[in-house]
Design a protein that fits this description.
- This protein folds into two domains: 2-30; 43-194, Glutaredoxin (3-Layer(aba) Sandwich).
- It is 44% helix and 18% strand.
- The protein has helices at residues 2-29, 32-35, 44-50, 92-107, 125-135, 150-153, 179-194, and strands at residues 63-66, 71-73, 81-87, 114-121, 142-144, 160-164, 170-175.
- It has a seven-stranded mixed sheet with strand order 2-1-5-4-3-6-7, covered by helices on one side.
């Protein structure tokens, strides 16, 4: 009898430990924002259908709150080439792309009539602040916690880049991140800056 109680007690303890470990694993790896994100589009039709600010159209104007508390209106940047980048801290391709922008975009085009404007989509200040601190980023970032700005440009999918020329027209609307896409983006920025 004693032996049976001891085995039952050990089994109960083991099941409790397994349950606690499962809960801890879920809390560590589950991100409710990430689970609501759609997978990247599989066809050009999906890309087109989800893109509102299309190449050749005027970029929708907006006012964005910057990380430092100031605001910036897109139309105030007329006369400069602007790269609007929508991203989120939970998005792996967004994070990978951001690791390259300081050297390959910001530094490369410093002193030119160019503005890099990354806008965090759907995230609060504290989330972005913790991410910036962890990554050591100090470049300008905009905040779009309710996605009002993003919805003027697209209905889904990040990262997204919208390159806007000096007249306010969308020159390039790209989606996702890979080395070829990033190289094409840099090449298009260069051409747009040099096209006076």
């Amino acid at each position: 009898m004693k032996e049976r109680r001891k085995k039952k007690g050990n089994l109960t303890l083991a099941l409790m430990i397994i349950g606690i470990l499962a809960i801890i694993a879920i809390l560590l790896f589950w991100n409710p924002q990430q689970t609501t994100a759609a997978p990247m589009p599989q066809s050009q039709e999906q890309v087109e259908a989800s893109t509102i600010a299309k190449q050749g159209t005027m970029a929708p104007d907006f006012t964005v709150e910057l990380f430092d508390g100031k605001t910036l209106k897109l139309s105030e940047l007329r006369g400069k080439v602007v790269l609007v980048n929508f991203w989120a801290t939970w998005c792996p391709p967004c994070r990978e792309e951001l690791t390259r922008v300081q050297k390959e975009i910001i530094d490369r085009f410093a002193g030119k009539e160019f503005v890099f404007l990354p806008i965090s989509r759907g995230e609060e200040y504290n989330t972005v602040a913790a991410f910036r601190k962890r990554m050591g980023y100090d470049f300008t970032m905009g905040l779009d916690p309710d996605q009002k700005i993003f919805r003027r440009y697209a209905t889904n999918y990040i990262p997204r880049n919208f390159l806007i020329d000096r007249d306010g027209k969308v020159v390039l609307a790209s989606i996702g991140y890979d080395k070829a896409e990033f190289a094409h983006l840099i090449e298009t920025i260069e051409k747009t800056i040099n096209n006076k």
